[in-house]
């Protein structure tokens, strides 16, 4: 009697399981490339518009066609000054081919300008004064770097301080 109940249960499971999978399958017209923007590898980078230290407007969507190294940082971050020379060297080395953008988190423009001048940084520095872009990108520690390809898709993400090797590996994923 007990064995018969298990046989009936297994038979029902064998029929109901595949039926449930078939009913809940993804639509035929669903495409992987149609993912909404999100701060994850393989997803389109969320668009944003910020003002740079020079007072210019920088919109990520306007940079399509150029791979972007999007680095979130702040002057108070201990690792950020150590990785700035590498980012500056990459900005100069790949000028016109890959754009380095350093998004400063929540600091006043004078503090950032003094830091950038002292470090000799020449790449664009947009100011995320209210942390809105950092929140959209789910930045929880600094530095955090997103490597965005020329189509606007995040291809690599690095949380923490980068050295020359990790920076080169990230750029290799977005630049031919």
What does this structure look like?
The chain is of the alpha/beta class. It has a single domain (33-172), classed as 3-Layer(aba) Sandwich (Glutaredoxin), CATH 3.40.30. The chain has helices at 2-23, 80-93, 109-119, 132-136, 164-172, and strands at residues 49-52, 57-59, 68-73, 99-105, 126-128, 144-148, 154-159. It has a 7-stranded mixed beta sheet with strand order 2-1-5-4-3-6-7.
Largest sheet: 7 strands, mixed
Strand content: 15-25%
Q: How many DSSP H or I helices?
A: 5
Give the name of the CATH superfamily: Glutaredoxin
Strand neighbour order, sheet with most strands: 2-1-5-4-3-6-7
Structural class: alpha/beta
How many domain modules?
Answer: 1
Rg is: 23 Å
- What CATH calls the topology is Glutaredoxin
**Spans with pLDDT under 50 lasting ≥5 residues?**
none
Arithmetic mean pLDDT = 92
SSE sequence, one letter per element: HEEEHEHEHEEH
CATH architecture classification = 3-Layer(aba) Sandwich
Summarize the amount of helix as a percent range.
25-40%
Q: What top-tier CATH class fits best? A: Alpha Beta
Principal-axes shape call = elongated
Distance between the termini: 67 Å
Q: Tell me the total number of β-strands.
A: 7
């Amino acid at each position: 009697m007990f064995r018969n109940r298990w046989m009936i249960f297994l038979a029902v499971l064998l029929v109901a399981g595949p039926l449930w999978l078939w009913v809940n399958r993804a639509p035929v017209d669903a495409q992987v490339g149609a993912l909404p923007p999100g701060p994850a590898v393989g997803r389109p980078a969320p668009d944003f518009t910020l003002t740079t230290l020079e007072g210019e407007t920088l919109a990520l969507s306007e940079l399509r066609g150029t791979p972007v190294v999007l680095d979130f940082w702040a002057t108070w971050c201990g690792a950020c000054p150590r990785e700035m020379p590498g980012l500056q060297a990459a900005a100069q080395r790949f000028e016109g081919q890959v754009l380095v953008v350093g998004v400063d988190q929540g600091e006043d423009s004078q503090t950032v300008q003094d830091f950038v001048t002292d470090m000799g940084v020449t790449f664009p520095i947009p100011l995320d004064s209210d942390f809105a872009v950092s929140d959209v990108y789910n930045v929880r520690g600094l530095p955090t770097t997103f490597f965005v390809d020329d189509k606007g898709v995040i291809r690599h993400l690095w949380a923490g301080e980068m050295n020359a090797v990790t920076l080169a590996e990230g750029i290799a994923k977005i630049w031919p």
